[in-house]
């Protein structure tokens, strides 16, 4: 499987982390665990950490420059939803009665990676960062998710980027909590 290197460029500074988790550029705004620790906690066999700025206003267009394999692209995403005009969100009250609540801003997005032929992206802004899947015209995929998903207090801008094929799988099946041979 062909691997891609991803580095995030913010302004003129390139921000990435090494295998020991040291920040190449830019101040940390919180805990930055080492790459091996992040990979283990995310259940990954390979990947890299990047410091990725998230949209300051969820629900609006968002653009971030990215360097891929020595090439350059711009991740350009816009809000996207499947909610229709009459969408209503309800929550259960203390007595079980459904109460209408105002729905949150649109956190999901779709877009492109400009500068990389036919690369598309879909994802969502979540508490602690951005989750997304990048799909390239040759079939390659990359996933992005916040490091803070598994590390309370982690730098909110740190994300792990990986090929979904690098997610560890468990080759065991369980019945009533016991492994089945």
Short description:
This protein is mainly β and 181 residues long. Helix content is 4%, strand content 41%.
Give an overview in words.
- It contains one helix and 14 strands.
- It is mainly beta and 181 residues long.
- The strands form three sheets. It has a ten-stranded antiparallel sheet with strand order 2-1-4-5-8-9-10-11-12-3, covered by helices on one side. A two-stranded antiparallel ribbon has the order 6-7.
- 4% of the residues lie in helices and 41% in strands.
- The N terminus is likely disordered.
Pick out its properties.
181 residues, mainly beta, two-stranded antiparallel ribbon, 1 helix, 4% helix, 41% strand, globular, disordered N terminus
SSE blueprint and pairings:
Blueprint: E1 6-10, E2 13-15, H1 35-42, E3 48-51, E4 62-68, E5 71-79, E6 89-92, E7 98-101, E8 108-114, E9 120-126, E10 129-135, E11 141-146, E12 158-162, E13 173-175, E14 178-180
Antiparallel strand pairs: 1-2, 1-4, 3-12, 4-5, 5-8, 6-7, 8-9, 9-10, 10-11, 11-12, 13-14
| Strand order of the biggest β-sheet | 2-1-4-5-8-9-10-11-12-3
Task: Count the DSSP helices.
Answer: 1
Shape: globular
Strand and helix order: EEHEEEEEEEEEEEE
Cα-based radius of gyration, to the nearest Å? 19 Å
The number of distinct β-strands equals 14
The fraction of residues assigned to DSSP E strands is 35-45%
Distance between the termini: 30 Å
Q: What is the share of helical residues?
A: under 10%
Largest sheet: 10 strands, antiparallel
Mean pLDDT: 74
Please identify the structural class as seen in this structure: mainly beta
Low-confidence stretches: 1-28
């Amino acid at each position: 499987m062909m691997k891609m290197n991803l580095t995030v460029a913010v302004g003129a500074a390139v921000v990435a982390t090494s295998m020991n988790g040291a920040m190449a550029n830019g101040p940390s705004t919180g805990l930055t665990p080492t790459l091996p620790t992040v990979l283990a906690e995310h259940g990954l066999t390979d990947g890299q950490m990047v410091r990725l700025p998230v949209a300051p206003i969820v629900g609006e267009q968002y653009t971030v420059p990215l360097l891929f394999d020595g090439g350059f692209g711009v991740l350009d995403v816009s809000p996207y939803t499947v909610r229709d005009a009459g969408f209503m969100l309800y929550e259960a009250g203390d007595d079980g009665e459904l109460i209408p609540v105002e729905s949150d801003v649109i956190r999901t997005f779709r877009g492109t990676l400009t500068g990389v032929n036919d690369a598309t992206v879909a994802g969502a802004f979540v508490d602690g960062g951005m989750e997304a899947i990048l799909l390239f015209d040759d079939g390659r995929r990359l996933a992005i998710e916040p490091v803070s998903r598994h590390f309370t207090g982690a730098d909110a801008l740190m994300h792990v980027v990986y090929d979904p094929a690098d997610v560890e799988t468990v080759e065991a099946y369980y019945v009533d909590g016991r492994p089945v041979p």
